[in-house]
Design a protein that fits this description.
With 321 residues, the chain is mainly α. Among the domains are: 139-285, no CATH class; 291-321. The chain is 79% helix and 0% strand. It is built from eleven helices and no strands. Helix 3 runs antiparallel to helix 4 (118-160), helix 4 runs antiparallel to helix 5 and helix 5 runs antiparallel to helix 6 (213-229). The relative contact order is 0.04.
Length: 321
């Protein structure tokens, strides 16, 4: 129907245009006399009426087109929102499935352990939980990066098809600035989330080893400062006393985990250990890792070799590992 009215409109318009042009030319050439001119002029009101009808039709068509175009745009936005929510739900469902898949074996192992064996449960948590969390985080980060890359490619393609006039260049620049700001915002949000997860992991590790609440808070403050700035607090109020339930190897693994998780491989973990947890590495403590080291002053070979020799042997063993 729209095509039919368009063709009819073109036929009427071109016919009237050529007829009027021919009439004017013939009149100035003197071919048409005054009587014929008066007869033709009698049809002018009908031409005005036809032009008014055409203009009215155009206005009505424009109003209806605009109205339905607005409805179509609103419907499209609504459908886009539904599609976006569906994608988000699919992502959450996928993430829950991955979480369940990774944590189920870990939970089953804990359930199979005998009741009351707290040390075994703590060891299982310390050995398996960082690996599971790291794997889940890596999968989630890879998925987010893939989605962001895809969105950026689509936006870049949209930008490239724009014409090179001034307004389009300004619009492109503004769009790129918005993309840059959005990227920085996402990076900042990701950094804050990782820092919060690191604090939770720190509280879990030190709480399970029987560390007091006050000392756990101190460790969290020191770790947060180290991850954010790379500096180690030298405040004496943040002194961390020795906890004999936490071995040197476990402490080193803890620092390695938080550095890798936050993507700060350039940080000096050894310096952080020597400064923040100096009681573990000072050489003055009487208990060294691992727990099974059979050092007793009553044993003859311990008395003969001496504590300093035992300490050096253990340090060399850990360095070789």
């Amino acid at each position: 129907m729209k095509k039919f009215f368009s063709i009819l409109e073109n036929i009427i318009g071109y016919t009237l245009f050529f007829a009027f042009t021919a009439f004017v030319i013939l009149y100035f050439l003197g071919v048409i006399d005054e009587e014929t001119r008066m007869k033709v002029m009698g049809y002018i009101p009908y031409c005005y009426l036809g032009a008014a009808i055409v203009v009215l039709y155009k206005l009505v068509a424009l109003v209806f087109t605009s109205f339905y175009q607005i409805k179509i745009e609103k419907r499209k936005e609504y459908l886009d929102e539904i599609l976006a929510w569906q994608k988000i739900e699919e992502a959450f469902t996928k993430q829950e499935d991955m979480l369940e898949q990774e944590l189920t074996p870990f939970i089953e192992n804990v359930k199979r352990m005998p009741e009351g064996n707290t040390d075994a449960i703590i060891k299982e948590i310390q050995d398996r939980l960082p690996e599971v969390v790291q794997k889940l985080v890596d999968q989630r980060v890879a998925e987010i990066k893939q989605n962001m890359t895809k969105e950026n490619e689509e936006r870049i393609q949209e930008i490239n098809v724009l014409s090179a006039n001034v307004s389009d260049v300004l619009e492109r620049r503004e769009h790129l600035l918005n993309l840059e700001a959005e990227s920085k915002r996402c990076q900042e949000d990701e950094r804050k989330k990782r820092l919060a997860k690191t604090e939770e992991y720190t509280m879990l590790v030190f709480s399970l080893t029987g560390t007091s609440v006050e000392d756990v808070e101190k460790v969290c403050d020191i770790v947060k400062l180290f991850i954010e700035t790379g500096q180690v607090a030298s405040n004496k109020d943040l002194y961390i006393p020795l906890n004999k339930k936490l071995r040197n190897a476990e402490l080193k693994q803890f620092v390695t985990n938080i550095i890798r998780y936050n993507g700060k491989d350039y940080l000096d973990g050894d310096s952080f250990l020597q400064t923040a947890f100096c009681e573990w590495f000072s050489g003055k403590k009487k208990r060294i890792s691992p727990k099974t080291t059979p050092c007793c002053p009553k044993i003859p070979w311990c008395q003969r070799i001496g504590w300093r020799r035992i300490w050096k042997d253990c340090v060399n063993a850990f360095n070789n590992k």
